[in-house]
Amino acid sequence: MNSKEKFINSFRNAKLHGNFILDLNPFTKLNCAFAIFLGAALLGHYWTRLAVIIICYVINALSGKENFKRFVKLYSFVAFLFFFFLIGLNTCFRPGETLYWEWGIIGITKEGFFYGLSMALLINEICGSIMSFYMVTPMKDIMYSVERLGAPRAASYIMLASMQSIIDLGKSANTIMESQSARGVETSGNLKTRAKAFVPILFPLFLGAIAGTEEKTVAMETRAFSANRKPTHMYELRKTPALEKVFCVFLDLVVIISVVWRFLP
Amino acid sequence: MNSISLKNIRYKYPLTDHYALDGVSFDFEEGKFYGIIGPNGSGKSTICNLMKGLIPSFYLGDLEGTVEVQGKPVDEWEPEKLCTKVGYIFQNPFTQISGIRDTVFEEIAIGLENLGIDKEQMIQKAEEITKRIGIYDLIEKNPNELSGGQRQRVAFASILAMDTDIYVIDEPTSQLDPDGTESVFKIIRSLKEQKKTVILVEHKIELMAKYADEIIVLKDGKIIKSGPAREVLSDYDLVNKKVAVPQTVLFGHEMERAGKSLGKLPITIDEAEVCVRERMRGEQL
Ligand SMILES: Nc1ncnc2c1ncn2[C@@H]1O[C@H](COP(=O)(O)OP(=O)(O)O)[C@@H](O)[C@H]1O
Ligand SMILES: [Mg+2]
Fold it and tell me: A79 with A160, same domain?
């Protein structure tokens, strides 16, 4: 069997990504992401929140090298920003009992520091879970699962197509900018020159995109998007293994019980 | 049976006050290859939109007259049935890709998925079509990253997958380079060989002369001439009305005017070659 035949044949069975995290059902992943971050948010300890952030790194590491690299790059930056600003601002400006140092309106307090730390951990924990979910779940998998649940095709079409049109917009912006620069318009340099070159192309850029939508609707219409039938799928995910479902239930129970336990008088 | 019949069509787009089509009637017979020609804005694309039922379901506006597909008014067809009768391919290769699939193979299957076709059947169909029209090499590629010509062929494949009887094709090559044009015409040729009903709008008149059984000339929303390709293209009146005719026809007219008639008007290069060769032999005698 040559590579093309192999490729075609791969549609005959459920698609596997070849990694146990990526291959989890999208709803399993969503469930885990929610259970973990809600649990940690409600439990409210520094340590549970920090643990969630570490778990996010671990999950991405387990899901493959490329994924991990992208996650580290993107998330570490965001996380750092939150830590830096939330802790910084709260430490300096939040009033508190234990004052270490004071200068004008700035007052460094212990309570401020811990408040900022707790808030930064919370936000980073939530960001991390959501980002991890999207990292380890291809958009087409989400759409497939949602469609299988009975969501209309139009809905998943809009989701996927808007993602693509953002990419396309970026591409055409690039093309226009390149031709502008070939015509001698200054397109690189400081922020002001760049903005000067970029702003005038926005109008034709969006106009072009809008003009395309009518034709696109027509094109999709000819491919039976308004058919009133349950669609079939060339790309299919595997049936969710029972163990996965059991795990979800177990995790949810653990989270619910710990939260209830904590808030019990 | 008629594939498509237009009966006394008058149509105005919304918010416009002139008729894009003004009294158009025509019967398209099954299994024939029709070419529609005419200047820009003469209503060619509007006719295509009508045949697909996009007027009046998608484009509102004032419509008089009826369009019938296989004897049944177009608005009485269920959309999903009509999709398997009339396939529509148009100009812009970039808007005909769905943008929701990341391989050509899956892109081609979307229409079939929407129709609820069984997976194995879809796979076989997509494989067969990609092989038939020469895009098998592209099946693993991302359709959103292809060239215009490649995308146009993928658009064809996606419509061919629906296995329609009638193909309405609106200026499929106007945005393609010569290579892309050639490969798209190969596909159109294969439709002709399969005796599908083809209704093609195309500016490349030389190609029309070669393939079309019948030609319809539109101007200002009216059919000013229609009939067998040779008959229509030989009409000198078209030249007066500034409708593009093949260079060889102009050449024939010129020769006639110079008193050196070629015997008949050549409508394709091949014919012109034969005419000229015979003519020269005559001269030598
Ligand atoms: N979407 C539209 N809205 C309003 N008027 C349109 C629209 N599309 C075409 N027209 C008008 O209808 C007439 C016929 O256009 P069209 O069928 O696109 O011509 P062709 O395809 O022969 O170039 C033109 O006068 C054009 O301006
Ligand atoms: Mg047109």
Answer: no
Domain boundaries, chain B: 1-85+193-233, 246-285
- The reply to whether ligand 1 has any atom less than 6 angstroms from the CB of B23 is no
pTM for the full model?
0.83
The vertex-B214 CA angle with B208 and B220, nearest 5°, equals 80
- CB-based burial label for A12 (10 Å; 0-12, 13-18, 19+): exposed
Cα dihedral A168→A169→A173→A179 (10° resolution): 40
Q: Return the ligand number nearest the Cα of B39.
A: 1
If one counts the domains in chain A, the total is: 2
Cα–Cα distance measured from residue A150 to residue B173, given in angstroms and rounded to the nearest whole number: 39
Are A31 and A86 found together in one domain? yes
Q: Please give the number of the atom of ligand 1 that sits closest to the Cα of B170.
A: 21
Q: What is the ipTM of this complex?
A: 0.79
CATH match for B1-85+193-233 among 2.40.50.100, 3.30.70.890, 3.40.50.300, 3.30.70.20: 3.40.50.300
Q: Which residues make Cβ contacts (< 8 Å) with residue B133, sequence separation at least 6?
A: B153, B156, B157, B160, B186, B187, B190
Whether A211 maps to a domain, the answer reads yes
Residues 129-148, chain B: which have Cβ within 8 Å of A?
Answer: 136-137, 139-140, 144
Domain with A145, as residue range(s), is 139-239
Q: In terms of Cα–Cα distance, which of B247, B283, B282, B253 is closest to B265?
A: B253
d(CA B253, CA B262): 9
Burial of B59 (0-12, 13-18, 19+ CB in 10 A): middle
- How large is the average pLDDT for residues B228-257? 84
Q: Would A8 be classed as within a structural domain? A: no
Helix, strand, coil % in chain B, rounded to nearest 5: 45, 20, 35
For A192-212, the DSSP string reads HHHHHHHHHHHHHHHHHHHHH
B159 to chain A: which residues are within 8 Å by CB? 222-223
For residues B212 and B248, give the distance between their C-alpha atoms in angstroms, rounded to a whole number.
Answer: 16
Task: Find tokens 């939109």 and name the residue.
Answer: B49
Confirm whether A36 is domain-assigned. yes
pLDDT at position B283 is 60
CA separation for the pair B91, A243 (Å, rounded): 51
Q: Over the stretch A70-95, which tens digit does the pLDDT of each residue have?
A: 999 999 999 999 999 998 888 888 77
Higher pLDDT, B200 or A181: B200
Pair A86, A115 in one domain: yes
